[in-house]
Amino acid sequence: MFNRLKKNVIASLVVTLLAGNVLPSQADVADSLPDIGTTAGGTLSINQELQMGDFYVRQLRASAPLINDPLLNQYINQLGMRLVAHADSVRTPFHFYLIRNDDINAFAFFGGNVVLHSALFRTSDDESQLASVMAHEISHVTQRHLARAMEDQQRNAPLTWVGALGSILLAMANPQAGMAGLTGTLAGAQQGIISFTQNNEQEADRIGIQVLQRAGFDPQAMPVFLQKLADQSRFTSKPPEILLTHPLPDSRLADARNRANQMRPIVVQSSQDYYMAKARALGMYATGQNQLGDDLLNEWAKGNARQQQAAQYGRALLFLEAKSFDNAKKIIEPLLAKAPGNVWYLDLMTDIDIGLNQPQQAVQRLSALKASNSDPVLQLNLANALLEAKQPAAASRILNRYSWAHPDDSNGWDLLAQASAAQNLRDEELSARAESLALTGQLAQAISTLSSASALVPLGSLKQARYDARIDQLRQLQQRFRQYQKGR
435 labelled as ligand-binding? Predict the structure, then answer.
């Protein structure tokens, strides 16, 4: 349903600039260790960071291969917020995103935004290892490393980081133009950025392992994950991409082990959601050959109950991807009968129903669940099923509530545009499409589209007042964003 993504490259360049090393390297047990500073007050306020984060997220949506899958996004955000709840110095909201990329990487930037590469699901053996990556990136944000780096560079080039960030995002959409932008922007400041990054990494590692432990995950996952990457680099001609920009000396690995060994040992079982998310990421979003192979599925089939269920889910998912809907249904129906509220099974069963041209069955199944009134994934599934069942008015009622509650989710706006078009409500279709354009930073096009919607409704009507008020908001946003566009 939501597997509609663009393929792009060069996300690895973000790591060098954004201090976004995916690996936790140095962790300390004591919370009282010296803090090298988090205010960065001379350069950016928290409000400015939020504005810059908003700007760059919109650029990412427009140019990067973000995975716009509600199930996966819900999972990584729930996992991320579990970690954030145990972090100190949290000054901004947090948002977590997935990029469709088979290179191991992650990065964090202004305003509490953390981006993970889908390859992390392939490389991590358990949920604690994935959480260790996220804890490290969360610590980059809470320690305001980008703002502090800008402060460090202020005397020489105040907008160096702003320009470089913009060039990297441009590189994702247009490699030639983006590389040219990077070359010009970083020429005078690259060495300073690299030097500052090492300090950032040490601090993020130290704080990240504390967050990981407090959130109830296994701190040993950090050195284990480091060792895994070290082994990969030792036996391949091309090491993991993260190690090209952030070398992994033996001393770093030893230090990570030492810090983890000082912490209380804990046995942690990965959640059912972790295995389901891993199956979904590998089965639907690998950029090359399908990575959800028999080896992994057979291993899970011999494992614990959670792994066995994930193996069945994974096989059904592969049948769905191959459009073998009957075979997928044979696997999922018994699982759903035992767990009728399982969102992973419900989402897959809905797609199977639609694939079999039986959307009304999906509507009936989802409508009978109270969770469909509150769970965002089930709301989207029900709205989509209603659209497929030729009931756009009912879909619109759900989607109007959904988009109000989740204005940053393009899935809701895209489906609302479809539902409005099916009812010949041209102004409402244009309004929804304008919101999608705004989410990708295309503010001029969004304003133009909303102006067209405004012209279609009666003069002085409530609808026109609403459209015109939104146009004013987007113009103000456009004005705020101009300084960052100049920096690029």
Answer: no
Residue 274 within a domain: no
Active-site residues: which are they? Answer: 137, 205
136 annotated to bind ligand: yes
117 is in an annotated binding site: no
Q: Whats the size of the chain, residue-wise?
A: 488
Task: Please give the Cα distance from 455 to 217 (Å, whole number).
Answer: 55
Spatial neighbors of 444 by CB under 8 A, at least 6 apart, are 478
Side by side, which strands form the sheet with 113-117? 95-99, 113-117, 106-109
Residue 171, in any domain of the structure: yes
d(CA 354, CA 145): 47
Domain assignment of residue 104, yes or no = yes
Q: Is residue 286 part of a domain?
A: no
Per-residue pLDDT of the chain (488 residues; tens, 9 = 90+): 533 333 332 333 333 334 344 333 333 333 333 333 445 555 678 888 888 889 989 988 988 889 999 999 999 999 999 999 999 988 899 999 999 988 888 888 888 999 999 999 999 999 999 999 999 889 888 888 777 766 666 545 545 555 555 555 444 323 333 434 434 333 344 434 434 466 677 778 888 999 999 999 999 998 888 788 777 777 666 655 555 544 455 666 777 788 888 998 888 999 999 999 999 999 999 876 668 889 999 999 999 999 999 999 999 999 999 999 999 999 999 999 999 999 999 999 999 999 999 999 999 999 999 887 889 999 999 999 999 999 999 999 999 999 999 999 999 999 999 999 999 999 999 999 999 999 999 999 999 999 999 999 999 999 999 999 999 999 999 999 888 775 44
Domain that holds residue 77: 46-181+190-262
Identify whether the C-beta of residue 262 lies closer than 8 Å to the C-beta of residue 29. yes
Q: CB within 8 A of 350, min separation 6: which ones? A: 1, 362, 365, 366, 381, 384, 385
Domains in the chain, number: 1
End-to-end alpha-carbon separation of the chain, Å?
A: 35
